[in-house]
Design a protein that fits this description.
Pfam family, one: dUTPase
Largest sheet: 4 strands, antiparallel
Order of helices and strands: EEEEEHEEEEE
CATH superfamily: Deoxyuridine triphosphatase (dUTPase)
Number of strands: 10
CATH topology: Deoxyuridine 5'-Triphosphate Nucleotidohydrolase, Chain A
Strand content: 25-35%
CATH architecture: Distorted Sandwich
EC number: 3.6.1.23
InterPro entries: dUTPase, dUTPase-like, dUTPase-like_sf, dUTPase_trimeric
Distance between the termini: 45 Å
Number of domains: 1
Family: Belongs to the dUTPase family.
Shape: globular
Helix content: under 10%
Structural class: mainly beta
CATH class: Mainly Beta
Enzyme class: hydrolase
Bound molecules: deoxyuridine-5'-triphosphate, magnesium ion
Length: 157
């Protein structure tokens, strides 16, 4: 377990914590009340700033319950918090529900921070790349909705 120095920019904000042993994400809260109309987005402050150790990244993920129940997501999911960043963590929330506004109150848990080790790469220019089974196939090269992998005859409701 790595230790991450944290500064509370808002004295009322809880230190991010994991809800259960084994959880990957520590919950982040909003320090402001905010209402998002359908389709609206807003950059929301969380009241915390971190000093992630070199070699680590913080990924700001949506919470699945708010996504499933209300359509709340994060525009740039997952947001990338660099180890050199010392500013307040902010979350670019978006209401993807087509009809209902979403109201969030100060202190509501709006996102979860996943801390991961990260590799830094050195990009080395070459004349050609090694061959693989996939090759240049991408963006649907293996098929899409037209070729379901479960036969229609057995799908019952
Ligand atoms: O959800 C997020 C994503 C990013 N950040 C902060 C930390 C991160 O280190 C910094 C820059 O993020 P990113 O590199 O994704 O944004 P950019 O648009 O490339 O900005 P910059 O030019 O500052 O790198 O913004 C957050 O607070 N929340
Ligand atoms: Mg950047």
């Amino acid at each position: 377990m790595c230790e991450i120095p944290l500064v509370r920019l808002d004295p009322d904000v809880p230190v991010p914590s994991y809800a259960h042993p084994g959880d990957a994400g520590a919950d982040l809260v909003t320090t402001v009340d905010v209402t998002l109309a359908p389709g609206e987005r807003e950059l929301v402050p969380t009241g915390v700033a971190l000093a992630l150790p070199d070699g680590f990244v913080g990924l700001v993920h949506p919470r699945s319950g708010l996504a499933a129940k209300h359509g709340l997501s994060i525009v740039n999911a997952p947001g990338t918090v660099d180890s050199g960043y010392r500013g307040e963590i902010k979350v670019c929330l978006i209401n993807l529900d087509p009809r209902e506004p979403i109201t969030l109150r100060r202190g509501d848990r709006i996102a979860q921070l996943v801390v991961q080790r990260v590799e830094r790469a050195r990009f080395v220019e070459v004349d050609s790349l090694s061959e693989t089974a996939r090759g240049e196939g991408g963006h649907g090269s293996t098929g899409g909705f037209a070729e379901p992998l479960i036969s229609a005859a057995r799908s019952t409701s």
